[in-house]
Design goal:
With 412 residues, the protein is mainly α. The strands form two sheets. The protein has a two-stranded parallel sheet. A two-stranded antiparallel ribbon has the order 2-3. The chain is built from 15 helices and four strands. The C terminus is likely disordered.
C-alpha cells in the first residue's frame, strides 16, 4: 500500500517537474517561430549564390587587376588563392548557415561572444546594397538612353561635349605651313597666335573620347570638387527610385520569388558577354589585347602587392565575410551537399572572371589600335576599362539599341 502511494507521489512529482520545465522552456524560447523556408530545388541555392556574388567584382574589378598587375601573371596568384582561400571560406559560411538554419546575425549564436560580427556584417551589406543600387541606376540610365537610332555616347557635337571630344585618335596628316597669323581659343589656351593654317598645330588640347565625355559630363555631371555638390540630377534620381522598386519586387515574397528571378539574372550575363566577346574579337587589334591578357610578366609575381590584390579579389568576388552566404545557406535542407556546390560555385565564379577578361581585353586591343598606343597605356582606371570598352564595342555593333538594352542587367 505504502509502495503504491510512494509511486503515485513520484509520478506526480515527475509530472510537475516536467510541467515546470516546459513552462521555463516556453518562457525562454518566446513566441513560436515560423518554420524556415527552403529552396524549391537544389539548383536554386547555387543560382542564388552565383547571382549574388558574380557581378561587378568579376566583370569590372578582375580585368582591371589583370591590367594593373601585368596581365596573365595575375592569374597565377589568383588561382592559388581560389584553392586555399575561396573554396574553404565559402564552404565554411554556407555550412554554418545550413547547420544553424538562421541568417547572418543569428548564426553567431554558435559563439555568443562574436555576435557583434553578425551585426557589423549587416551594416556593411546595407551600405553595399546602397552602392550596388547606384550601379543599377546607371544601368537603367544607359538602357533608356539606348532607345535611339544613334547612341548618344557614340558621337561628338552634343550639348554635353567639349571642344576636346573626339571619336578617333588617328593623327592628322602633315600639311604645309602658311605665313599667316591666326588666333585660336581653347579651354586651357587663350589668345594663342600661331603661324599655321589648315594643319596640325604644335600644341593640341588633350583629346577625350565621346564615351568618356558622355559618362562624365552627361551621366555623372562631375563638378569641380566635393565642395561643389551641384543640383539633383532628376533623371538619375528617378532611375535610382526605379532600381529600388525592382529590388523590392524581387524580394517582397521571400525566396519563392527571388529564387525564380535568379534563373534570369544569374544566367543571362553569360549570353550577353558571349555576344560582346564575339563582337570584340572581330575588331582590328583585338588579338593584341588578348595576348597582353594571357602573356604573364613573371617579374610581377615577386611583388607582394600582386598577391594582396589576388586575395582581396577573392573576398570581393566571392562575397566572403558579408553574412549573405550564411543567410543563403540557411535556406538549404539540413543534409544538402553544400561541399559540391562550393566546388561548382568556385568554377563558375572564377571562370566568369577569366571569361570577362577576354571580353574586356579584346576591346582594349581595339582601342589600342585606334589610338596608336600600347595596350598598357589605353585606360586610366578599372571603372574606365569596363565602361569604355563595352560602350566602344556596342557603338560599333550593327544591332545598336537591341544589344545595349540586353546588356544592362541586375548585378545584385
Amino acid at each position: 500500500m505504502s509502495t503504491t502511494i510512494n509511486d503515485e507521489k513520484a509520478s506526480t512529482s515527475i509530472k510537475e517537474d516536467k510541467k515546470k520545465t516546459d513552462e521555463v522552456i516556453e518562457e525562454e524560447s518566446g513566441p513560436p517561430m515560423k518554420k524556415r523556408e527552403t529552396w524549391n530545388h537544389q539548383i536554386d541555392f547555387l543560382l542564388a549564390c552565383i547571382g549574388f556574388s558574380v557581378g561587378l567584382g568579376n566583370v569590372w574589378r578582375f580585368p582591371y587587376l589583370c591590367y594593373k598587375n601585368g596581365g596573365g601573371a595575375f592569374l597565377i596568384p589568383y588561382l592559388i588563392c581560389v584553392v586555399i582561400g575561396g573554396i574553404p571560406l565559402f564552404f565554411l559560411e554556407v555550412a554554418l548557415g545550413q547547420f544553424m538554419s538562421i541568417g547572418g546575425i543569428g548564426a553567431w549564436r554558435i559563439c555568443p561572444l562574436f555576435q557583434g560580427i553578425g551585426w557589423a556584417t549587416t551594416v556593411i551589406v546595407f551600405f553595399l546594397n546602397c552602392y550596388y543600387n547606384v550601379i543599377l541606376c546607371w544601368a537603367f540610365y544607359y538602357m533608356f538612353a539606348s532607345f535611339t537610332d544613334v547612341l548618344p555616347w557614340g558621337s561628338c557635337g552634343n550639348e554635353w561635349n567639349t571642344i576636346r571630344c573626339t571619336t578617333s585618335f588617328k593623327k592628322l596628316p602633315a600639311c604645309n605651313m602658311t605665313a599667316l597669323n591666326m588666333t585660336m581659343t581653347w579651354p586651357e589656351i587663350k589668345n594663342t597666335t600661331s603661324d599655321y593654317l589648315n594643319c596640325t598645330l604644335p600644341w593640341e588640347p588633350k583629346k577625350i573620347d565621346s564615351v568618356t565625355e558622355y559618362w562624365e559630363e552627361k551621366v555623372l555631371g562631375i563638378s569641380d570638387g566635393i565642395e561643389n555638390l551641384g543640383t539633383i540630377k532628376w533623371d538619375l534620381a528617378l532611375c535610382l527610385l526605379l532600381a529600388w522598386i525592382v529590388v523590392y519586387a524581387c524580394i517582397c515574397k521571400g525566396i519563392r520569388t527571388s529564387g525564380k528571378v535568379m534563373y534570369v539574372t544569374a544566367t543571362s550575363p553569360y549570353i550577353f558577354m558571349t555576344i560582346l566577346l564575339v563582337r570584340g574579337c572581330t575588331l582590328p587589334g583585338a588579338i593584341d589585347g588578348i595576348i597582353f591578357y594571357l602573356k604573364p610578366d613573371l617579374d610581377k609575381i615577386a611583388n607582394a602587392q600582386v598577391w594582396v590584390d589576388a586575395g582581396t579579389q577573392i573576398f570581393f568576388s566571392y562575397s566572403i565575410s558579408l553574412g549573405a552566404l550564411t543567410a543563403l545557406g540557411s535556406y538549404n535542407k539540413f543534409n544538402h551537399n553544400s561541399y559540391r556546390d562550393a566546388i561548382i560555385f568556385a568554377c563558375a565564379n572564377s571562370g566568369t572572371s577569366i571569361f570577362a577578361g577576354f571580353v574586356i581585353f579584346s576591346t582594349l586591343g581595339y582601342m589600342s589600335y585606334e589610338q596608336g598606343i600600347p595596350v598598357a597605356d589605353v585606360a586610366e582606371s578599372g571603372q574606365y576599362i569596363s565602361t569604355a570598352t563595352q560602350h566602344n564595342t556596342l557603338s560599333l555593333s550593327v544591332y545598336y539599341s537591341c544589344t545595349n538594352v540586353l546588356t544592362n542587367k541586375l548585378h545584385n
